[in-house]
C-alpha cells in the first residue's frame, strides 16, 4: 500500500503550501497534486524522488508509511531521534517555521493552522515554537542563531513581576518581533530597541509570550 497521496497532502499542509504552490515547485499542475492527494492517480517515480529529496525525507518512508509532523519538519536534525521516541508525555506544540513566517497571511495569523510538533516539554500555560531566522526583528544582544527552535509560553498573570529582563515575543495582527520585557511599577513593555516597544495590556495578553527555552541542531 502506498502512502504517497496522504504524505503529499500532509507535507503540503505542514509547509503551508497551496496545491498550486506545491505543484510549481516540481513543474507539475495543480490538478496533478489534487489527483495524487485524492488517490485518483500516483505520481511518477521521478517526481516522488524529487519531492523526497527536496524535503530531505527518506524515499522508503515517503512511500511506505504515514509521515509524522516531526519527520516532515526534520526534527531529527535538531534532536536525538531515539531519545525523542523514548520520551513519554510528549506535548503537541504549534510550530511556526520559516516557511510559515514568510507567508504572512491567515496561516501566519491563526495558531490553529500551524503544524503541531511533538516535544517532551510541559507548561501549564500555552506553548508556541518558532524557528529563528534573521528576518524576525530582535534585539542586537539576542544570541540565538538562525535555525534554532525557540519555545515560548504565554503570559502568566500571576507572575508578571518576574518577567523583567526576560526575552519575549509579540505577535499582533500586523506586527511580530522578539524583545525584552521591562517592568517599571505597574507598566510593562516589551522593547525591541530604544525606538520601538509595545505596552502589555491585560485586555489582550494573548499577544505576548515569554521565552521558555531554545534547542539547536546537534
TrEMBL record:
Q: Would you say which domain of life the source belongs to?
A: Bacteria
Q: Which UniProt keywords apply?
A: DNA-binding
Query: Which InterPro entries did the record assign?
Result: Cro/C1-type_HTH, Lambda_DNA-bd_dom_sf
Kindly give the CDD domains that the UniProt entry links to this protein. Answer: HTH_XRE (cd00093)
Q: Which residues form the HTH cro/C1-type domain?
A: 8-62
The name of this protein is: Transcriptional regulator with XRE-family HTH domain
The source organism is Moheibacter stercoris
Amino acid at each position: 500500500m502506498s502512502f504517497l497521496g496522504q504524505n503529499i497532502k500532509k507535507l503540503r499542509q505542514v509547509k503551508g503550501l497551496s496545491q498550486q504552490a506545491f505543484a510549481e515547485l516540481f513543474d507539475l499542475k495543480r490538478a496533478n497534486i489534487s489527483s495524487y492527494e485524492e488517490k485518483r492517480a500516483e505520481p511518477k517515480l521521478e517526481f516522488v524522488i524529487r519531492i523526497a529529496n527536496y524535503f530531505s525525507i527518506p524515499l522508503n518512508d515517503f512511500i511506505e508509511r504515514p509521515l509524522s509532523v516531526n519527520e516532515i519538519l526534520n526534527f531529527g536534525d535538531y534532536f536525538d531521534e531515539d531519545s525523542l521516541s523514548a520520551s513519554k508525555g510528549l506535548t503537541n506544540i504549534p510550530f511556526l517555521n520559516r516557511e510559515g513566517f514568510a507567508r504572512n497571511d491567515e496561516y501566519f495569523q491563526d495558531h490553529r493552522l500551524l503544524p503541531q510538533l511533538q516535544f517532551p516539554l510541559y507548561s501549564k500555560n500555552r506553548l508556541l515554537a518558532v524557528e529563528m531566522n534573521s528576518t524576525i526583528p530582535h534585539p542586537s544582544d539576542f544570541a540565538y542563531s538562525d535555525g534554532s527552535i525557540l519555545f515560548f509560553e504565554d503570559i502568566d498573570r500571576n507572575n508578571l513581576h518576574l518577567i523583567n529582563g526576560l526575552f519575549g515575543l509579540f505577535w499582533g495582527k500586523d506586527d511580530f518581533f522578539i524583545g525584552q520585557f521591562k517592568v517599571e511599577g505597574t507598566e510593562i513593555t516589551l522593547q525591541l530597541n530604544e525606538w520601538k516597544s509595545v505596552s502589555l495590556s491585560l485586555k489582550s495578553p494573548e499577544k505576548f509570550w515569554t521565552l521558555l527555552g531554545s534547542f539547536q541542531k546537534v
